[in-house]
Amino acid sequence: MPITKIPFAKMNGCGNDFIVVxxxxxxxxxxxxxxxVKNICAxxxxxxxxxxxxxxxxxxxxxxxxxxxxxxxxGAMCGNGARCLSRFAHLVGAASETMSFExxxxxxxxxxxxxxxxxxxxxxxxxxxxxQLNQPYPTEGPASLYxxxxxxxxxxxxxxDNVAKLSDRQITEWGKQIRYDHARxxxxxxxxxxxxxxxxxxxxxxxxxxxxxxTYACGSGSTAAAIVxxxxxxxxxxxxxxxxxxxxxxxxxxxxxEELARDVYMEGNAKLVAxxxxxxxxxx
Length: 284
Ligand SMILES: N[C@@H](CCC[C@H](N)C(=O)O)C(=O)O
Fold this sequence. Notes:
- Keywords: Amino-acid biosynthesis, Cytoplasm, Isomerase, Lysine biosynthesis.
- This is Diaminopimelate epimerase.
- This protein has 284 residues and is an alpha+beta fold.
- It is built from 5 helices and 19 strands.
- It has a 19-stranded mixed sheet that branches.
- The radius of gyration is 18 Å and the shape is globular.
């Protein structure tokens, strides 16, 4: 008998919003997840969100995070989603205030901080040799150089001096052009437009692969941009870097050595805005 009501939570981290389901008892078994996610994430005709996440059991950590983009594609991880799922795991009793969780991009750790209503997520180390810095971009685009790397998922970082003033249309047009530049980025890329505000802060806007639009914030993109800015000497890398997103502030800290960005932390909010039941009209 197919299930007709699916308990869910609606959460967001800096406005990057998610539908979250506790799938520890394999409630979602038998669903075509790609279609299901695409349908429930559609704004207007369904609940609507940038992504969908499931809390699942893990043999090697407190739980497994499964993350899907709004278009139904499964993503390896999501920074804002990680904070939300950590808070969710704590709320449903799947983890204590400190936890570890498994993703397709490795094992992450997190701490829920009830006093500030925030969550601090520790990323795996980022090997500096995996970053491609100062890559020329000769075709028409936002800048003549970009920076590329994997922080769980692929990211390009473009430093500009007028990020707040870019129109939504410019972000979407450049974002799509770069995201679908298959010659340079065969698996696509998230596209982050960043501006240095001072030695400790950046402003950032992100076009997200899988949402195919600008989102209010991107946690892994903010982390990628903060690390690249530190390596390039644009910010002080030995103190938290304040990332001003459209939906709020993320604080990124890390230590740079010759080979690694290690002790990579991302702290920010994780709001639980509703709980309820998804009904078949939401996914059919
Ligand atoms: N919003 C996310 C990034 C989500 C993953 C991405 N869209 C992809 O699969 O490429 C974040 O906060 O990190």
